[in-house]
Amino acid sequence: MVGAVILGRHGELVGEGFHVRAGGPHAERHALAAAGDKARGGTLYCTLEPCNHTGRTGPCTEAVIEAGIRRVVLGAGDPNPQVSGTGIARLRAAGIEVVEGVLVDECTALNEVFNHWIVTRRPHVTLKLATSLDGRIAAASGQQTRITGPIAQRRVHELRAQADAVLVGSQTVLVDDPRLSVRGLKPLTVLESTIDQPRAVVLDSHLKTPLDANVCRPGTVLATALSLAELAKRSGPYVSKGVELWSVPATDGAVDLVQLLERLGRLEGKPVSALFVEGGGKVAAAFLEQRLVNRWLVHVGPKVIGSAGVAAVASMAHPDGDWDIANVRRLGADVELEVRPCSRD
Length: 345
Description:
Elements: E1 3-7, E2 13-18, H1 27-35, E3 43-48, H2 60-67, E4 71-76, H3 86-93, E5 97-99, H4 104-110, H5 112-120, E6 124-131, E7 136-138, H6 150-161, E8 165-169, H7 170-176, E9 199-203, E10 221-224, H8 228-234, H9 236-239, E11 244-247, E12 250-251, E13 254-255, H10 257-265, E14 274-277, H11 281-289, E15 295-300, E16 310-311, E17 323-331, E18 334-341
Parallel strand pairs: 3-4, 4-5, 6-14, 6-15, 8-9, 8-14, 9-10, 10-11
Antiparallel strand pairs: 1-2, 1-3, 7-16, 12-13, 15-18, 17-18
Helix pairs in contact: 2-3
C-alpha cells in the first residue's frame, strides 16, 4: 500500500498515484505518468522506498531518474531484502537528494501485512470472533446463533475483502455452511472492475467437509492431517469440484498450524500474505496458544447467553499472555475491539 505525490519545480502539484494491486504499476509510476514532463526538476514524495529490482514491474528508481526528479522525500524503508536500502542508494548515486524517515511510523503501519509476510514468509493473521457480553459465541454447541447486527456483518465482508484467504474449522462448515466470500461491496476505485475473492481454507484434519458444502468450489483448500495415500483414496470427488486437498504434518492428530502457514505464505503465483481467521472457539484457541495471531478483532454484541453457551475461546494449556487494546469502534449496536499482542509485531 503505497502512495506518491509529485510537486513541480515551483511547488505545484503535477502528479499523484498509488499502488492499486500486486503486479500492477507502482505508485511512483502512476504519479510520473500523470506528471509527464512537469516532473523534471520536481520533488517526489513517497510513503515507501522505491524498488530497485525487476519483479513483475521494472525498477521504480530508474523511472524516477529518467523523469528528471531532483529530490525524493520518503516515509518508510522497504523491508524486502531485494530493496532494503538499495533504492535509496541508487537514487543518491544518480545525484538525487533523498530525505528519509518522514512520518516513518505512520508509513510503516500502512504495510504491516506486507512487512510481516516479506520477512517471515508467513501470512499476517487477523483473528475475528463475534461474542456476547458474557463471552459466548453460540447458545449451544452445534447451534447457529446470530450475535451481531447488519453493520458488523458488513464489516466482516470488508475484512474478507482485505484478505488473501479466509480460514475456518470443519465444525463451522458443518454447522453454518458459510460461503466465506465477499458480498455486498463495490470496488474501492474506478481502476478496479471487480473485488478479488479470498481463497477459502478449511482446517479439516479428518476430511469431514461435505461435498455439497458452499466452500467446495474451485480454489478452496481443505487442510487435512491425512496421509497422501489416504487422500488419494478420497480426493476424486473433491478434485472434480476444483477443491485442493492438502496433507499437512500433524501435531496431536490435528493440522500443524505453523506448517500450514508456511505453505500458504509460499504458494507459487499468489501467496497468502493476509489470512483472516473466522473459526470457532477451538480454532481461536489453537492460533492464540501458538502465538500466531497478529491482530485480534472481537465483535461484541449486546446480548447475554449464559453459562450453557459456547465459550468464545476454548480452554488452553498455555494462554497467550497480555494484549494491548489498539482501537475501539462502534458498529451500530455492536462494538469492535481491536487488540494486539504485547511486545510483538
